[in-house]
Amino acid sequence: MYKVDQVSWKERISYGLADTASNLIFVMVSTYLLYFYTDVVGVGAGIVGTLFLIVRFLDAGTDLIAGYTIDRTNTKWGKFRPYFLWLAVPFAVMGVVTFLAPDLSGSGKIVYAYATYIILGLIYTFINIPLSAMLPSMTNNPLERHEVTSIRMIFGQAGGFIVSVATLPLVALLGGDDESKGFALTMALFGVIAIPMFINAFKNTREREYYKAQKDVPFKEGIKAFNIPWLIIFITKMAFFFVFIIRNQSTIYFVKYNFGNESIIPIVMGLNYLTVVSLLLIPWFTKRLGGKKTMQTGIIFSIVGSLVIFLSIFATSVPLLLIGVGIGGLGLGLVPSLLFSMIADTIDYGEWKSGVRANGLLYSGSTFAAKFGMGIGGAAGAWMLALGNYDPSLAQQSASALNAIEFAFIWFPVISFSLVLILLQFYKLDKIHPQIVREIEERNKNN
Length: 447
Hints:
The chain is mainly α. It has one domain (10-205, 221-446): Up-down Bundle (Growth Hormone, Chain: A), CATH 1.20.1250.20. It is 80% helix and 0% strand. It has 16 helices and no strands. The mean pLDDT is 88.
């Protein structure tokens, strides 16, 4: 039977701070790297789109390798926690290196971008998958998983909020007229803050043994644990990160050119992080609606927010824009933490159906979905700029460029989330998960 209050508040906060650290670097990349490449380094938007897609595909391909490696990791500290200690400094250093703009030829800049982005993505994979994959080892109670993940998301969103709101002011403060220098120093500052947070998580979190899973799960065995509920969450996660990336990357262009008001970019970025309010309400929602319906509610709010933003264009109304962004932010807050905790439920389901428990493999597969979604989202946003003939040297963009930015910022998210809303109707695991856990425990007692 489920235990309660297995994860102390010290452990919950330490776990959450690891996601703060991760987002100080990840959100910097996901939000500002496209702008850095096109407007600071001077790489064409179409080239950047292809770069994002290829690198993300390569990066996503490493996820299964990472999951397999993590499943076979056995140290005195556990399977997952050691990666926080081993990779904290390399992750921060590569974040800075990625935001350097060395004086190279056009082709040299592209090669440098590929190399640094690939290495950063590889390190991110090996530090982020353990952060997610250790959740089933922290607690076997689905409600507590929701709570722990919500706390993680709150701290993660706090990191994202800091990056989104503070980056451009910090770039101006630290770099002056040199944006390249400003971005590098800003990334260095975030990296210095992130390192002790990862080490703190290594010291203060615990891995508990609830399941009599094999210490080393052979790949052929691990494949048996994949299942239909996992696939539904996989597709949902892919769509979410597609929307997350394309919306984040296009925000700076949408506000700067479609509204002609660059000064409100930090405000708009900040409103995206009203997600924190929703995260605080997730335990209330999930106890009454369950994970699936809570997620669907958030998606509906996000769609409504996008439609309000569309109306703000006709009215040329900044207040209406801010309201739309705020509604969308509130909606999105109900989605990401449930994606992580519901994957934990599908791992239980996979063991129940197949007899194989493969935390690392199934979590790495879901991380592949995130990488795949981010790759397509990053590429689609950049390609839309190229298709619309975006020119960073122009203060006023052409009508085709403005339409392309609008489509990336508004309509890609609406279309993607509408399809996901329908797909989630086929997810039925909420109803049978208590039975699954009981039967797994009985099976383990008899073995």
